[in-house]
Amino acid sequence: MPVSGRRGRRPKLAVWKFASCDGCQLTLLHCEDQLLSVAAAIDFAYFPEATRTVIKGPYDLSLVEGSITTPHDAERIHQVRRASKYLVTIGACATAGGIQALRNFKKVRDFTQIVYAAPQYIETLSKSTPISDHILVDFELRGCPIDKGQLIEVISAFLNNRKPAVTPHSVCIECKRRGNVCVMVARGTPCLGPVTHAGCGAICPVYDRGCYGCFGPKETPNTQSLADTWQQMDRSKTDLVRAFRSFNAYADPFRKESEAHER
Amino acid sequence: MSGRSGKAKSRTIKVDYLARVEGEGSLYLKIKDDAVVDCRLEIFEPPRFFEALLRGRHFTEAPDITARICGICAIAYQMGAVHAMESICGVTVGGQLRELRRLIYCGEWIESHMLHIAMLHLPDFLGYPDAIAMAAEHGELVETALRLKKVGNDIVRLLGGREVHPVNVRVGGFYRTPQRAELATLEHDLNWARDAAIELTRTVAGLDFPRYERNYEYVCLSHPDEYPLNEGRLVSSSGLDIDISEYDKHFVEEQVAYSTALRSVRKGHGAYLCGPLARYNLNFDRLPDTARQLARELQVEPPLHNPFKSIVVRALEVVFACEEALRIIAGYEVPASPAIDCRPRPGSGSGCTEAPRGICYHRYSIDHEGSILDAKIVAPTSQNQRSVEQDLRDFAATHLHLSQDLLTWQCEQTVRNYDPCISCAAHFLTLHIDCE
Q1: B53-386: in CATH 3.40.50.970
Q2: pTM, to two decimals
Q3: Checking phi first, is residue B172 left (phi over 0); if not, alpha (psi -120 to 50) or beta?
Q4: Residue of B nearest to A211 (CA)
């Protein structure tokens, strides 16, 4: 539920980083045309990538980037929740554990065998997990990276006390609306579009390649049917495991489908 | 902690979370009797273990996966990966496909440099906490900078599909190459951008720079005919001149307790500096006339050893990138095929390109089916980390007369001179598991 700032003052925005590439918070700075207007409507109260200024919480809106991978971060996310009235996770790391969640599929032994010069310096958990495994999240914005337009929509929805208009349908719908020729039907290019959450604008088919799942599973995806189609197109089980196991590998529907094809 | 200047016998400079850099790091300096006794750039960014994650993936997936190391310089990672894989397959990508790669890289240089110049670095010089606050009094400057940054992003989006983690780069070339008319849509804005970048260079060259110089060993790519982006030999100001396949013979990574990033040193030489200052000092004669004349006019010709002046070099490199992009677009012919076929064969290969913040090195081994057996990636910030600490040590030692607040701020600025990307640097450790 969106919450506005207290009477008479501008809402305070905080941007938090956990294990990530910075690309999703950078998306905010990439809104070159809107940045100064956003900054006119809201205070960047905590946003270390952009400012030295730190304004104390609580914050009206927190954007959280990255996944939980260390014991320290597993604690810190609770502090962030306590300091935030409304908390939105942004990007595949925060919503699904990110590419670093590929470690979740390895046996501990596989990793410990790779001996590091001084592993005692490094503290890390065996799994990379989404923020929602740890705290209550008010809204999840998907994508690796998130889409600029959807980010602006989420921020303005919050500013205007309404629910963000972000639909959970598939990339296929976006692709049809864009008038693309289907790369899978017409050219036999394997595509994850039928099971992937919309938001990117179906860019891969526009660039003559199949969708590779940056936005993770759509609502109620039929991954098994898509996997059957891929196999009819001579794609191996290894190909299927790799396809479902990328930036959103640990999102349930993709995780289950990849496990179903593992040798 | 003391708020006083000069007189205290012992002082500590501490910044718990460095702002306006990419990723999570902190700064710690201990000063005793006018000497710096301890200096640490601490990196606590959680490592993401890319080198381990890449094992078992198909070689064609490397550009998409390694892009996720960094949201700011994804192209640098994609380019390092595709060059390394092509060298394993025995393929050379030339002609217009090579030109298009230079073009998308120009886009990344423009957007990344403009992000750093205007939003991360310039506020230090003008005394603001950030670009938004700076915009209140320097509105036109910030608006121009944002528009310049957008022109860079427009190139990346047109060629790559989107600004962050572009989808169109592949081993062998691209998935789809643009028509001439599509590229021509960039020309108008690029012409504006080149002129705006020239004016911006004049503006930043007129800033007040802290007095500080150091005798660095500069390391960068060098190409006989071009200002370096994708290709060249690896050279240094101390006479290194090697093929990139020899990188591992000359550079080694070390680990310290207070950092989740590995740090590179040149064997037998120690710390070195890569990035804009290195490229500029060692490749000045390969910049276009406009940039060289501008450098002469502003009296910033090489040798340039003040790292605070890297902001001027970045602006000059934006001028270069705009001109280079215009040159490529003017001569563009649609290539016969968007990509050259790359069949896997067992072997190892390297790629090294100039990310906006310095050289980014990749080495992979793959098997006959194209599965990745081994990966090593060295980010620019890992390579500069030792230099950053030496700068901090030297800068603080010669500026102890400054107040605590000012010295702290200028030490932060000393780190920001490097445009460090801590998120990149921390992603290359192998994993030790602390079981939940």
Answers
A1: no
A2: 0.94
A3: left
A4: B167
